[in-house]
Amino acid sequence: MSDEIAENGTANGDVPEIELIIKASTIDGRRKGACLFCQEYFMDLYLLAELKTISLKVTTVDMQKPPPDFRTNFEATHPPILIDNGLAILENEKIERHIMKSVPGGHNLFVQDKEVASLIENLYSKLKLVLVRKDEQKSAALRAHLGRIDALLERRGTRFLTGDTMCCFDCELMPRLQHIRVAGKYFVDFEIPTSFRALWRYMYHMYQLDAFTQSCPADQDIINHYKLQQALKMKKHEELETPTFTTSIPIDVNDSSTTE
Q1: CA dihedral 172, 149, 257, 205 (to 10 degrees)
Q2: Same structural domain for residues 171 and 72?
Q3: Model's pTM, two decimal places?
Q4: Whole domain around residue 168: which residue ranges?
Q5: 55 and 150, same structural domain?
Q6: Which among 10, 62, 89, 193 could disulfide-bond with 82, CB atoms 3.0 to 4.6 Å apart, if both were Cys?
Q7: Which residues, 6 or more positions from 133, have their beta carbon under 8 angstroms from its beta carbon?
Protein backbone atom coordinates (compact mmCIF):
# COMPACT_ATOMS: atom_id res chain seq x y z
CA MET A 1 0.00 0.00 0.00
CA SER A 2 2.75 2.45 0.94
CA ASP A 3 5.97 2.70 2.90
CA GLU A 4 6.61 0.37 5.78
CA ILE A 5 8.76 2.24 8.25
CA ALA A 6 9.07 0.01 11.28
CA GLU A 7 8.65 -3.53 12.36
CA ASN A 8 9.15 -4.72 15.88
CA GLY A 9 8.66 -8.12 17.41
CA THR A 10 9.04 -11.60 16.02
CA ALA A 11 6.95 -12.33 12.95
CA ASN A 12 5.97 -15.86 13.82
CA GLY A 13 2.88 -17.73 14.81
CA ASP A 14 3.47 -17.31 18.53
CA VAL A 15 2.22 -13.72 18.72
CA PRO A 16 -0.39 -11.85 16.69
CA GLU A 17 0.74 -9.25 14.16
CA ILE A 18 -0.81 -5.83 14.58
CA GLU A 19 -0.54 -3.31 11.75
CA LEU A 20 -0.78 0.40 12.44
CA ILE A 21 -1.32 2.70 9.47
CA ILE A 22 -0.14 6.24 10.19
CA LYS A 23 -0.03 9.52 8.28
CA ALA A 24 3.13 10.06 6.26
CA SER A 25 5.20 13.21 6.22
CA THR A 26 3.54 16.12 4.41
CA ILE A 27 7.00 16.97 3.06
CA ASP A 28 8.24 13.76 1.44
CA GLY A 29 5.15 11.52 1.68
CA ARG A 30 7.21 8.62 3.04
CA ARG A 31 8.61 9.13 6.52
CA LYS A 32 6.53 9.49 9.69
CA GLY A 33 4.14 12.43 9.77
CA ALA A 34 3.36 14.69 12.71
CA CYS A 35 -0.01 13.20 13.70
CA LEU A 36 -0.25 13.15 17.51
CA PHE A 37 -2.68 10.22 17.70
CA CYS A 38 -0.57 8.21 15.24
CA GLN A 39 2.48 8.63 17.45
CA GLU A 40 0.54 7.93 20.63
CA TYR A 41 -0.75 4.56 19.38
CA PHE A 42 2.63 3.79 17.74
CA MET A 43 4.21 4.18 21.19
CA ASP A 44 1.55 2.05 22.91
CA LEU A 45 2.01 -0.79 20.42
CA TYR A 46 5.80 -0.47 20.30
CA LEU A 47 5.94 -1.05 24.06
CA LEU A 48 3.83 -4.19 23.64
CA ALA A 49 6.06 -5.40 20.80
CA GLU A 50 9.10 -4.91 23.06
CA LEU A 51 7.36 -7.16 25.59
CA LYS A 52 6.87 -9.75 22.81
CA THR A 53 3.09 -9.87 23.27
CA ILE A 54 2.60 -8.75 19.64
CA SER A 55 4.51 -8.27 16.42
CA LEU A 56 4.12 -4.71 15.13
CA LYS A 57 4.10 -3.48 11.55
CA VAL A 58 3.83 0.27 10.95
CA THR A 59 2.90 1.61 7.51
CA THR A 60 2.82 5.23 6.37
CA VAL A 61 0.26 6.60 3.92
CA ASP A 62 0.64 9.88 2.04
CA MET A 63 -2.79 11.44 2.57
CA GLN A 64 -2.09 14.11 -0.05
CA LYS A 65 -1.86 11.32 -2.65
CA PRO A 66 -3.36 8.19 -1.07
CA PRO A 67 -2.77 5.02 -3.14
CA PRO A 68 -5.80 3.48 -4.88
CA ASP A 69 -5.94 0.41 -2.62
CA PHE A 70 -6.07 2.65 0.46
CA ARG A 71 -8.98 4.64 -0.98
CA THR A 72 -10.72 1.39 -1.92
CA ASN A 73 -10.36 -0.11 1.55
CA PHE A 74 -10.83 2.95 3.74
CA GLU A 75 -12.51 5.60 1.52
CA ALA A 76 -12.05 9.01 3.18
CA THR A 77 -10.89 7.71 6.55
CA HIS A 78 -7.71 9.28 7.86
CA PRO A 79 -5.08 7.38 9.89
CA PRO A 80 -4.41 6.19 12.46
CA ILE A 81 -5.95 2.88 11.46
CA LEU A 82 -5.27 -0.32 13.39
CA ILE A 83 -5.56 -3.71 11.68
CA ASP A 84 -5.79 -6.78 13.89
CA ASN A 85 -6.27 -10.16 12.19
CA GLY A 86 -8.00 -8.57 9.22
CA LEU A 87 -10.23 -6.36 11.35
CA ALA A 88 -9.75 -2.62 10.71
CA ILE A 89 -10.40 -0.25 13.61
CA LEU A 90 -10.86 3.29 12.32
CA GLU A 91 -11.73 5.76 15.09
CA ASN A 92 -9.33 7.00 17.76
CA GLU A 93 -11.50 6.06 20.74
CA LYS A 94 -12.16 2.62 19.27
CA ILE A 95 -8.44 2.09 18.60
CA GLU A 96 -7.67 2.99 22.22
CA ARG A 97 -10.37 0.65 23.49
CA HIS A 98 -9.16 -2.15 21.23
CA ILE A 99 -5.56 -1.81 22.45
CA MET A 100 -6.79 -1.86 26.05
CA LYS A 101 -9.25 -4.74 25.78
CA SER A 102 -8.22 -6.91 22.82
CA VAL A 103 -4.47 -6.56 22.14
CA PRO A 104 -2.40 -8.96 24.27
CA GLY A 105 -0.80 -7.07 27.17
CA GLY A 106 -2.59 -3.85 26.30
CA HIS A 107 -4.54 -3.68 29.55
CA ASN A 108 -1.25 -3.18 31.43
CA LEU A 109 -0.71 0.18 29.71
CA PHE A 110 -4.02 1.63 30.83
CA VAL A 111 -3.90 2.72 34.44
CA GLN A 112 -6.47 4.73 36.37
CA ASP A 113 -5.15 8.10 37.55
CA LYS A 114 -7.68 10.94 37.57
CA GLU A 115 -5.11 13.55 38.59
CA VAL A 116 -2.84 12.79 35.64
CA ALA A 117 -5.75 12.40 33.21
CA SER A 118 -7.19 15.83 34.07
CA LEU A 119 -3.74 17.45 34.09
CA ILE A 120 -2.80 16.48 30.53
CA GLU A 121 -6.31 16.73 29.08
CA ASN A 122 -6.29 20.33 27.82
CA LEU A 123 -2.56 20.83 27.28
CA TYR A 124 -2.68 20.57 23.50
CA SER A 125 -5.52 23.07 23.14
CA LYS A 126 -3.32 25.62 24.92
CA LEU A 127 -0.54 25.10 22.37
CA LYS A 128 -3.00 25.64 19.52
CA LEU A 129 -4.17 28.90 21.11
CA VAL A 130 -0.55 30.06 21.42
CA LEU A 131 0.08 29.36 17.73
CA VAL A 132 -3.13 31.08 16.60
CA ARG A 133 -3.16 34.12 18.89
CA LYS A 134 0.62 34.59 19.24
CA ASP A 135 0.25 36.67 22.40
CA GLU A 136 1.97 36.53 25.77
CA GLN A 137 -1.25 35.83 27.65
CA LYS A 138 -1.72 32.51 25.83
CA SER A 139 1.97 31.68 26.22
CA ALA A 140 1.70 32.35 29.96
CA ALA A 141 -1.30 30.00 30.21
CA LEU A 142 0.66 27.23 28.45
CA ARG A 143 3.68 27.88 30.68
CA ALA A 144 1.51 27.65 33.79
CA HIS A 145 -0.01 24.37 32.62
CA LEU A 146 3.47 22.90 32.04
CA GLY A 147 4.37 24.15 35.52
CA ARG A 148 1.56 22.08 37.02
CA ILE A 149 2.87 18.98 35.24
CA ASP A 150 6.38 19.78 36.51
CA ALA A 151 5.00 20.11 40.06
CA LEU A 152 3.25 16.74 39.84
CA LEU A 153 6.42 15.01 38.62
CA GLU A 154 8.47 16.67 41.34
CA ARG A 155 5.99 15.72 44.04
CA ARG A 156 5.75 12.09 42.92
CA GLY A 157 9.47 11.65 42.25
CA THR A 158 8.83 8.93 39.67
CA ARG A 159 10.49 8.41 36.30
CA PHE A 160 7.18 8.54 34.44
CA LEU A 161 3.76 10.06 35.15
CA THR A 162 2.25 7.26 37.24
CA GLY A 163 5.32 5.31 38.34
CA ASP A 164 8.63 3.92 37.13
CA THR A 165 7.14 2.15 34.11
CA MET A 166 5.46 3.82 31.15
CA CYS A 167 1.72 3.85 30.66
CA CYS A 168 -0.82 5.24 28.19
CA PHE A 169 -0.59 8.72 29.73
CA ASP A 170 3.13 8.95 28.87
CA CYS A 171 2.37 7.92 25.29
CA GLU A 172 -0.20 10.72 25.18
CA LEU A 173 1.84 13.45 26.90
CA MET A 174 5.29 13.13 25.35
CA PRO A 175 4.30 13.64 21.69
CA ARG A 176 2.45 16.79 22.80
CA LEU A 177 5.49 18.04 24.71
CA GLN A 178 7.57 17.53 21.56
CA HIS A 179 5.11 19.57 19.49
CA ILE A 180 5.13 22.30 22.15
CA ARG A 181 8.90 22.30 22.14
CA VAL A 182 9.45 22.33 18.36
CA ALA A 183 6.46 24.30 17.05
CA GLY A 184 6.37 26.69 20.03
CA LYS A 185 10.00 27.63 19.48
CA TYR A 186 9.65 27.99 15.70
CA PHE A 187 6.47 30.08 15.54
CA VAL A 188 6.47 32.19 18.71
CA ASP A 189 9.90 31.59 20.31
CA PHE A 190 8.19 29.75 23.19
CA GLU A 191 10.50 27.68 25.37
CA ILE A 192 9.81 25.33 28.26
CA PRO A 193 11.46 27.08 31.24
CA THR A 194 14.69 25.50 32.45
CA SER A 195 13.35 25.95 35.98
CA PHE A 196 10.94 23.05 35.28
CA ARG A 197 13.63 20.59 36.21
CA ALA A 198 11.33 17.63 36.93
CA LEU A 199 9.66 18.07 33.54
CA TRP A 200 13.00 18.24 31.72
CA ARG A 201 14.19 15.17 33.61
CA TYR A 202 11.01 13.39 32.50
CA MET A 203 11.66 14.38 28.88
CA TYR A 204 15.26 13.22 29.21
CA HIS A 205 14.09 9.74 30.21
CA MET A 206 11.57 9.68 27.36
CA TYR A 207 14.26 10.63 24.85
CA GLN A 208 16.21 7.51 25.86
CA LEU A 209 13.37 5.18 24.85
CA ASP A 210 13.03 3.48 21.48
CA ALA A 211 9.25 3.72 21.81
CA PHE A 212 9.61 7.48 21.54
CA THR A 213 12.56 7.89 19.19
CA GLN A 214 11.24 5.32 16.69
CA SER A 215 7.83 7.00 16.56
CA CYS A 216 8.90 10.65 16.70
CA PRO A 217 8.45 12.79 13.58
CA ALA A 218 11.20 15.10 12.37
CA ASP A 219 11.21 18.73 13.51
CA GLN A 220 10.49 19.79 9.92
CA ASP A 221 7.36 17.64 9.81
CA ILE A 222 6.05 19.06 13.09
CA ILE A 223 6.63 22.59 11.79
CA ASN A 224 5.01 21.86 8.42
CA HIS A 225 1.99 20.31 10.19
CA TYR A 226 1.20 23.71 11.72
CA LYS A 227 2.17 25.67 8.62
CA LEU A 228 -0.48 23.75 6.69
CA GLN A 229 -3.04 24.54 9.41
CA GLN A 230 -2.20 28.24 9.03
CA ALA A 231 -2.20 28.05 5.20
CA LEU A 232 1.54 28.78 5.12
CA LYS A 233 3.95 27.11 2.74
CA MET A 234 7.28 25.50 3.52
CA LYS A 235 10.22 27.28 1.94
CA LYS A 236 12.02 25.17 -0.64
CA HIS A 237 15.19 24.95 1.43
CA GLU A 238 13.13 23.69 4.39
CA GLU A 239 11.64 20.91 2.28
CA LEU A 240 15.13 19.84 1.20
CA GLU A 241 16.64 19.91 4.68
CA THR A 242 17.96 16.71 6.19
CA PRO A 243 15.42 15.75 8.89
CA THR A 244 16.46 16.85 12.37
CA PHE A 245 15.14 15.66 15.74
CA THR A 246 15.32 17.95 18.76
CA THR A 247 16.20 15.78 21.75
CA SER A 248 18.73 17.91 23.61
CA ILE A 249 18.18 18.81 27.26
CA PRO A 250 19.09 22.36 28.39
CA ILE A 251 19.82 21.43 32.00
CA ASP A 252 22.21 19.00 33.68
CA VAL A 253 20.27 15.83 34.32
CA ASN A 254 21.68 12.93 36.27
CA ASP A 255 20.17 9.50 35.68
CA SER A 256 17.92 9.64 38.71
CA SER A 257 14.15 9.68 38.91
CA THR A 258 14.15 11.75 42.08
CA THR A 259 14.28 15.52 42.01
CA GLU A 260 17.09 17.22 43.84
Answers
A1: 40
A2: no
A3: 0.92
A4: 111-231
A5: no
A6: 89
A7: none
